[in-house]
Design goal:
Radius of gyration: 21 Å
Number of strands: 18
Number of domains: 2
CATH superfamily of the largest domain: D-amino Acid Aminotransferase, subunit A, domain 2
Distance between the termini: 22 Å
Order of helices and strands: EHEEHEEEHHEEEHEEEEHEHEEEHE
Shape: globular
CATH topology of the largest domain: D-amino Acid Aminotransferase, Chain A, domain 2
Length: 361
């Protein structure tokens, strides 16, 4: 699907000096680039009116369906600057395919892969100066999202939809850096249920996770891990990340995709990279009791969580209302080996043997 983007330059962009200062210490999700991508969809007409426009507020009718029925989806991806000053996207076609899966579940139109990727490339290209230098773990975080923008009150699929991409220069997701995080474990609250929207990347899943997230904060934890709601034993994922365990014999274990767990791009990359490092990837049902007993007897020696925003973060312990479970491998040797291997591909420090990178600039 070939589409030409109409470009409307921002009349008041930041100066080069302002951008250079901003990307030194951007934090996470605090600042945004000068432009955003926008594409409209209308029933009967399909996708049309592809634009790059100045970043700014979105005008919505108060009756817009997204505000009342939550019909929306989003993605998270990054652009990386390499040492030679080139800029690259990491596996954008995988994000496009997951975006299509989310759209189908939420009864939204599916955006073609090439149009999704083109929108990201156009935005990164015009705002390339916001991609931070290769030093450190800075990058340009991209947030594609789609909303039901039709002005209509009624429970049905929207017939007018708008797709956007915005971008934000970012540093590490966890301000404390690459240190072990504690995870609160809950079977009281559910992020998603069987037959629900757990496999879709939609805002409702994250809103549903917040009550448990804040419960975790009260117990000194950085994130929360959910236990499947009905049988209250199967491990699912964290509020915003997938979870892995490293076995004493080189097993790399993560919960199988059951329809309640997000199919993470970082998760998939770890399974591939882990195997190349000599580990033995396993995707299977993983019960909470197996996790806790396995940590106690040394079957599982490390644990980590992963996602586009945080990449890979070591887990120092799982905290429950009945006690704490801390893996023996608090040096996180295998976790950091996997983490560095993924980052080395993303930042171009090692050859991309997997064909995951797409050059933009």
């Amino acid at each position: 699907m070939s589409v030409t983007f109409e470009i409307s330059p921002n009349p008041s962009p930041r100066t080069d000096a302002e951008v250079a200062e901003l990307v030194k210490d951007p934090g996470f999700g605090r600042y945004f680039t000068d432009h955003m991508a926008q594409i409209a969809w209308t029933k009967g007409q399909g996708w049309h009116s592809a634009k790059i426009v100045p970043y700014g507020p979105i005008a919505l009718d108060p009756s817009a369906a997204v505000l009342h029925y939550g019909q929306e989806i989003f993605e998270g991806m990054k652009a990386y600057r390499h040492e030679d000053d080139s800029v690259w996207l990491f596996r954008p076609e995988r994000n496009a395919r997951r975006f299509q899966t989310s759209a189908a579940r939420l009864m939204l139109p599916e955006l073609p892969t090439d149009l999704f990727v083109d929108a990201a490339r156009e935005l990164v290209s015009i705002d390339a100066r916001y991609v931070p230098p290769a030093a450190g773990e800075h990058s340009l975080y991209l947030r594609p999202f789609m909303i039901a923008s039709e002005a209509f009150l009624g429970v049905r699929a929207a017939e007018e939809v708008t797709f956007y991409v915005i971008a934000s220069p970012v540093g590490p997701y966890f301000a404390q850096g690459v240190t072990g995080v504690d995870i609160w474990v809950t079977d009281r609250w559910a992020r998603a249920g069987i037959g629900g929207t757990g496999a879709a990347k939609c805002g409702g899943n994250y809103a549903a996770s917040l009550i448990a997230q804040y419960e975790g904060y009260e117990h000194g934890c950085n994130q929360v891990m959910f236990i499947e709601a009905s049988e209250k034993d199967r491990v699912e994922e964290l509020g915003g990340m997938n979870v892995f365990l490293v076995g004493a014999n080189g097993e790399l274990v993560t919960p199988a995709l059951t329809g309640t767990i997000l199919d993470g791009i970082t998760r998939d990359s770890i399974l591939t990279v882990g195997e190349s490092l000599g580990l033995k990837p396993e995707q299977r049902r993983l019960s909470a009791s197996e996790v806790f007993s396995g940590i106690a007897d040394g079957t599982f020696v490390e644990a980590f969580c992963c996602g586009t925003a945080a990449v890979i973060s070591p887990i120092s312990g799982f905290v429950t209302d009945k006690g704490e479970y801390r893996p023996q491998g608090q040096g996180f040797a295998t976790t950091l080996q996997i983490r560095n291997a993924v980052l080395d591909v993303q930042y171009g420090r090692t050859p991309d043997e997997y064909g995951w990178l797409q050059r933009v600039v």
